[in-house]
Give the backbone structure.
Amino acid sequence: MIQIKHVNKSFGSVQVLKNIDLEVQKSHVFALIGPSGAGKSTLIRSINALESIQTGEIIVDGISVHDKKTNINQLRSDIGFVFQSFNLYPHLTAVENVAIAPVQVKKVPKDQAEEKAKKLLTSLGLGEKFGSYPSQLSGGQQQRVAIARALAMDPKVMLFDEPTSALDPEMIKEVLDAMRSLAATGMTMVVVTHEMGFAREICNQIVFMADGAIVEVAPPEQFFTHPKTERAKDFLSKVLNH
C-alpha cells in the first residue's frame, strides 16, 4: 500500500530523513517510534506531501506522491491524516466538521454526508455529540471527531501523527480504543506514537527511528523482547522502565 524508497530530506543543513526505505502492506498497522527529533513526524507528513522530500520516492497505492504530475488533492482524499492538535473548525458542530470535506471535495449531497457523519460518530462513541461544537467537547472527544472526519473520505490509508500526545491520560484510552476498532476493520495505518502498550498490542510492525534513519523494523514481540540494535535497547530501557 505504501512504498518508501531511498527518501532523503533536509531542513537547511540538517538532514532529518536519511535514506529511508520502508514498505507498508495493505491492512497492516505500522508504529513509528523513537526519540524526539528522530524524523518520525517528518516521515509521516511526507507520505501525503505535507512535507516535501529532496530525493527518493513515496508511492501510495500505485501513485507517486511527490511526482509533479500527481493531483495532490485527489491523492490526499485517499489518505486520512489525524494530527496531534485536532484542527477542528471551531464554528462547526461535530457532524458539520465530519461532513464538510465529502461535500466540498467529493460533491456528496449534504444530507447524505451528514447521515454518514452521524454513523461514523456513533461508531466512535459520539452518538450524543452530533450538535456539539469543539469547545464543548473534551480533548479525547475532539480527537475522535478528527478520526471520523478523516474516515468520512473513505481513505485507503490512515496516518496518525502522535494522536494522543495532546491528551490527558484518562482520555488517551478512548482514542486508542477508536484506533483499535479501526485496525480491526482492516484499515492500513501508520501511527507515530509514544504509547508502547498500544504499539505492542495493535501493530504488525514496529519501525524504530533515531537520528533521521530507520534503525530497526520488527514485529512487536520481537522488538520489545529482543531488540537487535544497541540504540533500540537503550531507547526501550528508558521508555519501558520509567
